[in-house]
Structure formats: structure tokens, C-alpha cells
Amino acid sequence: MSAETSIIVPCYNEAGTILPLLDALYAQTYPRADMEVIIADGGSTDGTQSLIQAWAQDHPDLAVRVVENRARIIPAALNVAIRASGGTYIVRLDAHSRPESNYVERAVAAIVEGRGQNVGGAWDIQPSSSHWIARSIAAAAGHPIGVGDARYRYSDQAGYVDTVPFGAFKRELIDQVGFFDETLLTNEDYEFNTRVRQAGGQIWFDPHIRSVYFARESLPELARQYWRYGYWKVQMLRRYPRTIRWRQALPPVFVGGLILLALLAPFLAAARYVLAVTVAIYAFILLITGVQLALRHKSLGFWLGVPLAIACMHFSWGTGFLWGLLSPQKEK
Question: Looking at the chain, which residues constitute the CATH 3.90.550.10 domain(s)?
């Protein structure tokens, strides 16, 4: 007999976070007999699969299954897991996440109530370690200056949005709009939700549907993450140009403007002046943000770490986006 709700999880080398996720799923208020967990693993080499198998043996009252994700990319993992699942409702989670105990219950209830065709909630962004830069990255990733109007990172107001992290929906939604796009290595959630909205559906954000998400631990990891976000956002926008939002356009415009001013500065005094003023204002805003968060969280390292993290996010996203514009168009 199939479970009513399938939890799907893309996974690759998540030995450090997979057990807390499974423990959080086991502690859900939603009946365990009505849940199944499908983990699409991309060939982990750090013992993740052994940890899952051992955990499943110790918790036989929650169905947990590992399926192979040969493509080793997130959208393919989601599709493999969906095809292997049998639930009426699909709840997508991440191996870096830890849902609150009522996460599945609230998500399914919102679908049943007809709040939206795809529903999701808020992230409580936590650091991956106790190091000051890891804590700064987590604080920056939840601040509006760092992420613009991405409400799921900071808002406590429910409502209709463009996208949600993860998401929960009826299986029949796949029949209506199709599976996740495997030609996009990131932005697969946004692209999927774009098709949902184009088909007349709505995306519902409920801040009471909460999960902890562990941010990247170091600035190089953060830079790689946001560079990918920027690069692959371009590939998605080539298909859906009207989905561009101001928060997505600002970083490439800002970075492109600085590059242009830097090229003109040796020849034009006005360019040198505008460049200096722009950089000074930007640095001042970031430093003020860092000081505010340092005082709020009583963490001295935030005054430097938060500006570094926000600048890393902006410049990585912006350069990735610009590089995507210069790259050949990806065929679907």
C-alpha cells in the first residue's frame, strides 16, 4: 500500500547533515505510516548511503528508500525520486535542511485547503559551523540587503509569491506542468514554479511552515554557490524573460557598472570620481549592516564577516550572471 505523502530528497555526500534530516522527519506530527522518504543519491563517496541504511534499520516504522541519481544533478534527483514515489502529495526537502516537527502536516494541510498549487515556507538559516565567518554567512543569507525581496528568507507574512524553497504539491501537478527541467543545474525550483504560474496556478508562502537550512561554511563555497545561481538564472531568463525581478537584476547591473567605471577611470576623471563614490557608499552600507547585526546578535565578528559575505554574494551572483550573458545559449 502506497504512502499518502512522499518526501523527496536530492542527496550527494551529505554524511554530516543526512541524519539530522532523518531524525527531523521521524519526529514529524504527520503519521509515519502515511509517509515515505525517497532519497535520490548521486553516488555519495563519504558513507552517506551506509548511514541512511543503518538509520532505516533502526527506525523500521518510517519507510526510507534510496534510489540512484545517475545524472548527479538536483533536478534529475527530484525527477528520479518523484518517479520512484507513490504518494498523493509530494514534499520536497533538501539534505541540508531540518524541518520543524509540524512541517509536513502544515504543508499538506495548506494543499488540502487549496491555498496554492505549490506551497512552501520560511527558512531559519543557521551556520554550518561555529566559526565567525560561517555565522556571518548565515546572518547575511537571511538579510534583505543580501537577498533582496526573497520573502522565504526573512518574512513573517503569508501570501502569494513567485517561488518558495523546496515546495509541496499534489502529484497531479506533474501531469499538468511536467517534471523539473534537467537542463538547469540550479534555479530548477523557480523554473518549475514559473510553469505552475503560467498554467494558472499559484504559489503560496506560509511562514508557519518552517525549516532550518544550513548555509555554506566558507566564502569560497558561498562564492561558488552564488556564481552558479547567477549563471543559471540567465539560462532560465532566456526562456522566461518576463520573470526577471529587481533583486536579480541589481547585482549584474552593479558589477557591470563597476567594471565599466574601472575601465574608464584611467582616462576620465569623472569615472574615477563616480567609481570612488559608488564603492565608498556601498562599503558604508555594508559596514553599517554588519555593525547592526553585530549588536543585535552580540557577535563582534559580524561587523566584518557580514559585509564580506554580502559582497561575496552580490559579486559572485553578478559575475556569474554576466558570464551567462556572454555564454552561448543552452539548448533545452
Answer: 5-217
